Amino acid sequence: MFASASRATVSIATKMSKASFSSTTAAASKKVAVLGAAGGIGQPLSMLLKLSPHVGELSCYDIVGTPGVAADLSHIPTPAKISGDLPAAGSWPPKGNDGIARALTGCDVVVIPAGVPRKPGMTRDDLFNTNAGIVKGLVESCAEHCPGAILAIISNPVNSTVPIAAEVLKARGVYDPKKLCGVTTLDVCRANTFVGEALGKDPREVDVTVIGGHAGITILPLFSQVPGFMDAVDEKKMDALTVRTQFGGDEVVKAKAGAGSATLSMAYAGYVFTENVLRAMDGEEITQCAFVESTLTDAPYFASPCKFGPDGVTEVLGYGELTAYEKGWFDKMLPDLKKQIQKGIDFANN
Ligand SMILES: NC(=O)C1=CN([C@@H]2O[C@H](COP(=O)(O)OP(=O)(O)OC[C@H]3O[C@@H](n4cnc5c(N)ncnc54)[C@H](O)[C@@H]3O)[C@@H](O)[C@H]2O)C=CC1
Ligand SMILES: O=C([O-])CC(=O)C(=O)O
């Protein structure tokens, strides 16, 4: 399918946007780093970014395996130059041992899927003890080596790792709320897929707004805003679809039975998010959902549709009217979301 990357086109229904593997106008000029590039998400995400018409340079960084990942990806005939780095020694191509500095210097966008995934029975918050420190350390390196880059945080729990990243950047004097996003695109992908199935529509033509955070009941798909949805689906079905979207991650964790969580769909979602950020940097008007600093609610960070421009988020958009059903979930979600955000802030400052 990807044999001729210059001709293959994949269109993706994200908020008012289409990402593709081909473009006649895009300049392959941006440097992107993937931190955690040898992992379950990192490898397919790096492959998709190697196909991006916007990426001129792709740095694959991890604590293991990146020389091999980079050598492998380097044989795909697209313009993006590839490097693979490890923390201290070892790189591909073999060109010195500057590790993360080499990976990050000059980056426009840094995507972070580094950290451990869930096993059955765990919540995303159960990952906090391991992943909080990993994200803190990596964002400290970003503050040092690419303070102007847009950071896209995938590592869970996103509701806490994004506030951790913000506190690290603030402490270093380089925090710009426009340039820090938690990636919630997989929630949008799932909601679009499930609505497509329910309405008998091509899911690529569906675009569900998903607000809140990225964990269980903090994920709130606004199905009432999908044209035709309320006429086609009764309250029981809507409830089932809402809960399935909120716990879509658990569905995958259970099916993988101890071998991790969503990787392929997340790589796709991470690619869609990053590609949209890159297109906005190149001057296109893009709107997509992201978990960002926000004044829309009492929670200091909140996922909602955001406009993106050359420097990241240019406007945090509202999410419109909620139905009584959605308001019920919204009220239930906010205390949890605020607690998870505060946990991240406290961790970073202690
Ligand atoms: N935001 C979202 O929607 C989603 C988030 N996730 C999260 O993404 C994270 C990664 O998931 P997977 O790729 O499945 O895990 P994985 O275990 O397959 O890969 C993680 C990679 O991170 C690397 N790593 C660990 N510490 C590192 C460090 N200090 N610097 C650089 N790399 C480091 C590991 O070596 C490994 O290669 C998990 O926290 C998971 O919960 C997963 C799916 C969806
Ligand atoms: O469920 C998990 O742990 C991974 C994740 O965030 C998702 O698939 O949405």
List keywords for this structure.
350 residues, alpha/beta, 7-stranded mixed sheet, 3-stranded antiparallel sheet, 12 strands, globular, binds 1,4-dihydronicotinamide adenine dinucleotide, binds oxaloacetate ion, EC 1.1.1.37, L-malate dehydrogenase (NAD+) activity, NAD
Task: Give, in spatial order, the strands making up the sheet with the most strands.
Answer: 4-3-2-1-5-6-7
* Global shape: globular
Poorly predicted ranges: 1-18
Task: Note the run of SSEs as H and E.
Answer: EHEHEEHEHEHEHEEHHHHEEEH
Strand content: 15-25%
Please tell me the overall pLDDT.
92
Listed once per kind, the bound small molecules are:
1,4-dihydronicotinamide adenine dinucleotide, oxaloacetate ion
Number of helices: 11
> Largest beta sheet, briefly?
7 strands, mixed
Helicity, as a percent range:
25-40%
Distance between the termini: 49 Å
**Cα-atom Rg, whole angstroms?**
19 Å
Number of strands: 12
Structural class: alpha/beta
Keywords: NAD, Oxidoreductase, Tricarboxylic acid cycle
Enzyme class: oxidoreductase
Binding site for NAD(+): 36-42, 62, 131, 154-156, 266
GO biological process, one term: malate metabolic process
